[in-house]
Design brief:
alpha+beta; 6-stranded antiparallel beta sheet; 9 strands; globular; about 25% helix; about 260 residues
Amino acid sequence: MLHEQAIYQHEAAQFQVERLDFENHKAFVRMVDSDYFTTALTNVRVSVIERAEELPLFSSQATIGRGDVSVVEKVVGYKKIKYHTHENVGYGDVHLPEMQMHTTALWLTVPEAVVQRQEVERPLVIDALRGIANALHLVACVGLMTDPADLGRTLGDKTDPDGLPGKGGSGPGYDPTIFLYDHTPGGVGLAPRLFEARHELLRKARALLESCPCEHGCPACVGPVIGAPGTTIEALPPRKRIALALLADLGIAGLH
């Protein structure tokens, strides 16, 4: 929330961060009247430290598990988002130290073989998996009645076929893994509860996609579909349709 040039809101007032003093744990700010707010752009690396449970997902080749993980977050920039319209009106660089945390997570690993047999190109399948992660995150936060900021999410991979999921390579040959992790050091019990309700979680995520009135994708299901300036939404990849096809391939049925 705090980095140089960030817009920090406190008691209905806006403050722009001018400087951070890490040694003395202080942020120096000035009051401003801005028509935008800022949101951080974060790179997340997750690696599993200890696997508590891991089971096959229905009759598919996918697996779902839970355990202790290491989360490393690096804020690399920020976006300026306009109030009311949520237009992106600018970017900025951020130079902050990495934040490391030991916590608990639930993960869903989709084997490379499942990715390869989809009818669309591999990058579109990976993008659809990010959409599925968005839907799982939305459903999980509602089910747990928790603030979305309390539950982190990212798409990692499983580079070693005999090893644990982690975040490593990004080319063909790795098994994409969706992580939902407690955004609190040590965890507060969210991941184990999600694992216990894993089947319901997955089915509700598919039901969310099926019931959402959008055609291509939106923040209420698989996330916003974004293209280059001037690109029509009809010309963009059908992220929502690909996500539904992938969920069906994994044996995840909707709620009836």
